Amino acid sequence: MHSTFEIQLAVERSPRGHVVRAAGELSARTGGRLVGLVDKLIAHTPRPAGPRALVIDLAQIRSFDTDGVDALRRAHGRAGSAGVGLCVTGLDGRRTLLPHDVDGMLDRLPVVGATELTATQPEKPRRHLAVATA
User: Fold this and answer.
1) Is the peptide bond before 48 cis (omega within 30 degrees of 0)?
2) Half-sphere exposure of residue 97, counting CA atoms within 13 Å on the CB side?
3) Which of 34, 59, 74, 95 has the most CB atoms around its CB within 10 Å?
4) Are β-strands 53-64 and 18-26 bridged in parallel, bridged antiparallel, or unpaired?
5) What pTM value is reported for the model?
6) What does the angle CA 65 – CA 71 – CA 72 come to, to the nearest 5 degrees?
7) With helix as H, strand as E and coil as C, how does the chain read?
8) Residue-wise pLDDT tens digits, 59-97
9) Separation in Å, CA 116 to CA 87, 88, 89, 113, 119
């Protein structure tokens, strides 16, 4: 049976930073999985090998709600407390399609466009870890 609340997460790791690619729905039910993954990436990789930056790619997220975006804000705060910069990408051309309250919450997060991500994206991922969650 297919769950209506689903998110898939994949991590591309490199010494410069990690890119978390998310697909599915970002909601109250799935946002905790994203926060948990960010926590693991920060806590389970000892310094100085840990990521200096995390980019959350939302290009494949098909629906957002305010609780899901609040999870992004929590992840941003936790990363910042650990000295890791976190920003989101994948919203190019989609902002006008989002509910006003979701769009307003996203304005409080650092957002990079596709061209900026390409310029800062890790060149050679060391390891690719795919995590499927429901």
Assistant:
1) yes
2) 8
3) 34
4) parallel
5) 0.77
6) 95
7) CCCCCCEEEEEEECCCCEEEEEEEEECHHHHHHHHHHHHHHHHCCCCCCCCCEEEEEEEEEEEECHHHHHHHHHHHHHHHHCCCEEEEECCCCCHHHCCHHHHHHHCCCCECCHHHHHHHCCCCCCEEEEEEEC
8) 999 988 889 989 999 999 999 988 888 999 998 888 777
9) 11, 11, 9, 5, 5
Nearest to 58 by CA among 14, 15, 16, 105: 105
Q: Within 13 A of 131's CA, how many CA atoms are on the CB side?
A: 17
> Cβ contacts of residue 82 below 8 Å, gap of 6+?
42, 43
Separation of alpha carbons 48 and 36, rounded Å: 21
Amino acid at 44: H
- The C-alpha angle with vertex 122 and arms to 126 and 57, in degrees rounded to 5, equals 105
pLDDT digits over 38-51, tens only? 999 988 666 555 56
Amino acid at 26: L
